[in-house]
Write a structure and sequence with these properties.
- The chain is mostly helical.
- Helix 2 packs across helix 4.
- It is built from 4 helices and no strands.
């Protein structure tokens, strides 16, 4: 149970920071922010662990809350915001 709470807290922190740092307007409420942060933690943790072999990235991929895991989670969430913008972009 505490693992789920850690994922939600990490997701909320990472999603909110990613939306604050990423330029432009992103829609969505609190649930999309938490979901974005949780998915960002998984993506950022996986990519950071594969590319850098970082322990902070490994912590992000399992939902542990630390400075390193928050950084990798925010980077992963920002990557997901970018990809989502590419997928949903409307052409004129």
């Amino acid at each position: 149970m505490s693992g789920i709470i850690a994922w939600v807290v990490l997701g909320l922190i990472a999603g909110a920071l990613a939306k604050a740092f990423y330029p432009g307007q992103q829609g969505g409420g609190i649930f999309s922010t938490i979901g974005l942060g949780i998915l960002g933690a998984i993506v950022g943790g996986y990519l950071g662990q594969v590319l850098l072999g970082s322990s902070g990235a490994a912590a992000a991929s399992v939902g542990a809350i630390s400075i390193g895991s928050i950084i990798f989670s925010v980077l992963g969430a920002m990557l997901l915001i970018f990809i989502w913008g590419l997928v949903t972009r409307r052409t004129a």
